[in-house]
Amino acid sequence: MTDYPFAFVPLPSERSNEKPRISGRTMFIDWGLDMARVEGLMRLAGDYVDIVKIPIGTARLYDEGLLREKFDVYHRHNVLTYVGGGFIEHVYAIEGLKSLGRMFEESKRVGFDILEISDNYIPLDKGERQNQIRMAIQQGLTVYGEVGSKHDKTDAETLIRQADECFEAGAAGVVLEGAELVENGDINRQLLDKITAGLDLTKAMIEVPGPWVSGVTWSMVQDLTKLLIKEVGPDVNLGNIMPDDIIHTEALRVGLGVVQPTVKTAID
Predict the structure, then answer these.
(1) Is 11 contained in some domain?
(2) Taking Cα atoms as reference points, which of 67, 72, 82 lies closest to residue 26?
(3) Is the pTM of the predicted complex or chain greater than 0.85?
(4) What is the pLDDT of residues 65-85, one digit of tens each?
(5) Cis omega (within 30 of 0) on the bond before 20?
(6) Residue ranges making up the domain that contains 219
(7) SS3 of the chain: helix, strand, coil, percent, to 5
């Protein structure tokens, strides 16, 4: 049992505190953290994260023993490992569909829990997307379908339809590509409103865009994170959180910080 200081300070009851969480999940990105950093990060912030993404094809560059060691640390802290869809797309683009069965089998063998099916670079129609999802599920993987693009803008109706196609094929969740929410350097509020109204947000994870998207600044990431927490609630599922932002993101979820008082206090 963890002892927390300042226990007299109340936190919102709407925030899920026990893992595995059904909603309110935080997925962060491990771009290549060394083992000392992984151990330290999990000791400090393991209670506040649920999924770790190994992005693009970086898993290909690890010594297998080291990759398994890293996964062991994450699993000890009840953090699920997630292979990003960009790696799957890379293999599909080079080798075609025949390679994906082996790709999914290998993902399971080395210790990934969740696999993402996306089409940022290689467009997939409904049949192709659903076939890949079903193939990955057959290998014993939990599958998330990503909807949206890093490069093109997609209307809300298409994003919601693609999400429904993923669920229809057996996906456990969907991920909204964060780049869709940024347009001309600003948050696309109209798209965000339609998405939050049209998706089951207990099963949908909304990524925050990162500096790998042109025009995205750190302040924009913070503004979007705050907006999502304010409008959806502290149990919104958030993806692509950077390791250094895990504690800060949890603080935003539970409302720690300067707020405008809603009632007069004794000092008034």
Answers:
(1) no
(2) 82
(3) yes
(4) 999 999 999 999 999 999 999
(5) yes
(6) 26-253
(7) 45, 15, 40
